[in-house]
Design goal:
Elements: E1 4-13, H1 17-32, E2 40-43, E3 55-58, E4 61-64, E5 69-70, H2 77-80, E6 89-93, H3 97-100, H4 115-130, H5 139-150, H6 155-168, E7 194-197, H7 201-214, E8 218-220, E9 225-231, E10 234-239, E11 242-251, H8 255-260, H9 269-274, E12 276-277, E13 281-287, H10 289-292, E14 298-300, E15 306-311, H11 313-316, E16 320-325, H12 335-346, E17 353-358, E18 372-373, H13 382-389, E19 395-397, H14 410-431
Helix pairs in contact: 1-7, 1-14, 4-5, 4-6
The structure holds flavin-adenine dinucleotide.
């Protein structure tokens, strides 16, 4: 069948937060700049916007099945830019609990201990060594090297490590040691409290989408893009039975999608394949109020499949528990098996569970994993290599995997969208 063709000045591929922030930013540039209005379209595979920001119903409770935490409120760009206000936020810990452990006031299954001090010093030693390390080494390797001087990891340190693994979405033997270096480490956050959104991530997606559409964005839903190529002075975006042409394009599809489709967009293969999508998944349980009241906000879990429990009840009054799994293997569990394992672990009776939802992000074809991490196979400049490859051309890349400092978080995706908008804007001015 002949492909139907449509032309725009700019096409953004992917309607997650990177695509939406790119759209808003670009439309604002053009609304106030000298070039006058341009046509901008966003092409999204799903029938909804938001991507891995995904609020869904678990029984009668709305839950975030993708991102949930605002990782640090001080200086966070989504707050600074006014997309999230203080009234939207409920702090869940006074600081990054995965990295720094609980503060006095945090509701957590373990309290600060003397061994935490050793843990912090151990991490500092690992960080210092990381700056001189070669690729191919893991956080586990770095920690093992501290043992001859600092002794084996104490019990409290092991609990901290497990929480940390929960943040990175992978076990310490996969987390890249380079990730740990203070200067180059890329799993960034912001200082201050970590928080969840009272209204869920849905409100953030709605705000961005409404503003983009108010400014004139054309949204095309339900179109799977198969390939993006630059041909002479234009970009062609091929869908199954439709072809879009544009002067500029921004590709915001996930790292997992790019990795699984080598012909989607020409990018340097080795850096692309060395970065890794983790398998952080959630078993979301809508439980009875009395069951929810039994748990603190954070509980570290030691089980084959589950790493931590997060309880919304003390924060938002929603009787909702979220258990995290980190392995690709856990995605093979059936809903019943996952539920059974969780009930056993938390000693929950079946009648206390009203509804459940188990995510398997590795099997979602438009995501192919949860979020990107520089795992032990990655090298310093892998993310930069992806950006450099698109520096000169008319196709730009954005998405959480393209932000060197904050890779993995939705604030990274947001910032990367703004960066790509700036690049397109400058390119547009240069040829205008
Ligand atoms: C379980 C889970 C928990 C998380 N927790 C947190 C957290 O607490 N805090 C935090 O900061 N971050 C968290 N994250 C990460 C965060 O969700 C992501 O960093 C962010 O949402 C990524 O946004 P994005 O726009 O880069 O990508 P996406 O949200 O993946 O958007 C890309 C869009 O492109 C579309 N697309 C893909 N392929 C095609 C194609 N071929 N054609 C057309 N469209 C296509 C997709 O449908 C999608 O809508 C979590 C993620 C997961 C999965």
């Amino acid at each position: 069948m002949v492909e139907a063709e449509e032309s725009y000045d700019v096409i953004i591929i992917g309607g997650g937060i990177a695509g939406l922030s790119c759209a808003v930013s670009l439309l604002r540039h053009f609304a106030t700049g000298p070039s006058g209005p341009v046509s901008i379209a966003l092409v999204e595979w799903q029938e909804r916007l938001g991507g891995r920001l995904y609020s869904c119903k678990v029984g009668d409770v709305e839950a975030d099945a993708g991102a949930a935490w605002v990782h640090g409120v001080d200086g966070n760009p989504l707050i600074e830019d006014g997309w999230i206000g203080p009234e939207d936020l409920v702090p869940s810990s006074a600081q990054n609990i995965w990295l720094h452990g609980p503060a006095e006031t945090d509701s957590c299954s373990f309290k600060a201990s003397e061994e935490d001090e050793t843990w912090e010093r151990r991490l500092a030693v690992v960080g210092a060594a990381a700056s001189m390390a070669q690729g191919g080494r893991s956080l586990q390797d770095g920690l093992l090297e501290t043992e001859p001087i600092m002794g084996p990891l104490a019990h409290a340190e092991r609990r901290r490590l497990r929480m940390l693994e929960g943040w990175f979405g992978m076990s310490a033997d996969r987390i890249g040691l380079l990730e740990w270096d203070g200067e180059h480490g890329s799993m960034g956050d912001y200082p201050g409290a970590h928080a969840v959104l009272k209204g869920g991530m849905r409100i953030l997606v709605e705000r961005l989408a409404n503003e983009a559409q108010r400014l004139g964005l054309k949204v095309v839903l339900g179109q799977e893009v198969c390939a993006v190529e630059e041909v002479r002075d234009e970009v062609r975006i091929h869908c199954h039975q439709r072809c879009f042409r544009a002067q500029w394009a921004v590709v915001t599809v996930s790292l997992g999608v790019l990795q699984s489709r080598p012909s989607f967009l020409q990018l340097p293969e080795k850096p692309l394949q060395r970065l890794e999508m983790c398998h952080y998944n959630k078993l979301l349980l809508n439980v009875s109020e009395s069951a929810a009241a039994r748990f603190p906000v954070f509980t570290d879990l030691v089980s084959h499949h589950f790493w931590q429990l997060f309880n919304y009840w003390p924060l938002t009054g929603k009787p909702l528990l979220s258990l995290a799994t980190l392995s690709a293997e856990a995605e093979k569990l059936t809903d019943e098996e996952a539920l059974e394992a969780a009930c056993g672990l938390l000693t929950l009776a079946k009648h206390e569970i009203r509804a459940s939802h188990f995510t398997r992000w590795g099997r979602v074809p438009w995501a192919c994993g949860s979020y990107s991490v520089s795992s032990k196979d990655a090298e310093w400049d892998d993310i930069r290599a992806l950006l450099l490859a698109t520096e000169e051309g008319r196709i730009k890349v954005a998405g959480e995997h393209t932000h060197e400092e904050h890779q993995g978080g939705f604030h990274a995706a947001y910032l990367s969208g703004k960066r790509a908008a700036q690049e397109v804007w400058e390119g547009f001015q240069a040829v205008a």
